[in-house]
Specification:
Blueprint lengths: L1 H17 L3 E3 L8 E3 L8 E5 L8 E8 L3 E4 L14 E15 L2 E2 L1 E10 L10 E11 L6 E7 L11 E4 L1 E2 L5 E2 L6 H5 L4 E5 L10 E15 L2 H24 L1
Antiparallel strand pairs: 1-15, 2-5, 3-4, 4-15, 5-14, 6-7, 6-10, 6-15, 8-9, 8-14, 9-11, 12-13
Length: about 250
């Protein structure tokens, strides 16, 4: 009985360290991810079983100003990211077409973490964003893009990150004065990978882009490691005692 309790303690400790991680490879459906859909019924987004990295992928074929892959319903991706000291976001991308009136172009792919509950200034949400990669159809095969937030408690924007929620007269976005990087991370209502880079405007573009293996990998707090070590120590102590008794 004690051995079962020890294993339970270990399982709980390991679960505490791993429960915050999330991965979508589309083998179990979209899991809340939604891609750009057309207004005129031409093209759209959906699961494609022929393109994925060892699994299906989620593919958008459309002519539009930009494309977005977003999730606002899956609690594994929409949550308080300050609960972990650091976190890594990753995505696999296959760009098969990115063209503007027949000419190949590139488009930045932005990771945007959006907070709709604290919007002001007439804008739909407050967000922090990072250019995670570039959609370039001349690059063959799948590419992996990722970014790590090393300090989720940061007040100011880390290097490379931008803010949205207020705008200067010329349309340049910035994080409102009453918001911090950490306060946005604490209330993420939607996570998006998008070509709609705040402050930029694009014309209609032909896209054929697939995504796969969207991941969030938080680093557990030090207390979690202590729980795991305590669980392992308990199992080891009981195992030694049983061996001595035998």
């Amino acid at each position: 009985m004690k051995m079962k309790q020890a294993y339970l303690a270990l399982a709980l400790a390991v679960a505490a360290g791993s429960a915050a991680a999330a991965t979508t490879n589309f083998s179990s459906g979209t899991e809340g991810w939604e891609g750009t859909q057309p207004a005129n019924g031409v093209g759209g987004s959906g699961i494609d079983t022929s393109l994925g990295v060892d699994a299906p992928s989620y593919r958008t074929i459309i002519n539009n100003f930009g494309i977005t892959f977003a999730n606002s319903t899956n609690a594994a991706f929409v949550r308080d990211y300050t609960a972990s000291s650091s976190v890594t976001f990753g995505i696999d991308v296959l760009a098969q077409q990115v063209s503007f009136f027949g000419t190949d172009v590139t488009r930045d792919l932005v990771l945007e973490l959006r907070d709709y509950d604290n919007a002001n200034n007439g804008l739909p949400y407050t967000s922090v964003w990072y250019t995670i990669g570039t959609l370039d159809a001349s690059v063959e095969g799948w590419q992996n893009f990722s970014v790590t937030i090393n300090d989720t408690s940061a007040i100011g924007l880390p290097s490379g990150w931008g803010g949205y929620g207020a705008e200067q007269a010329d349309g340049t976005p910035y994080l409102p004065e009453d918001r911090t990087f950490a306060s946005v991370l604490a209330g993420v209502d939607e996570i998006a990978f998008t070509t709609y880079k705040p402050g930029f405007v694009y014309g209609f573009t032909d896209f054929d882009v697939a995504v796969d293996n969207i991941t969030v990998s938080p680093v557990p707090e030090p207390g979690t490691y202590a729980m795991m070590l305590a669980g392992l120590g308990l199992v080891g102590a009981i195992a030694r005692r049983r061996k001595q008794q035998a």
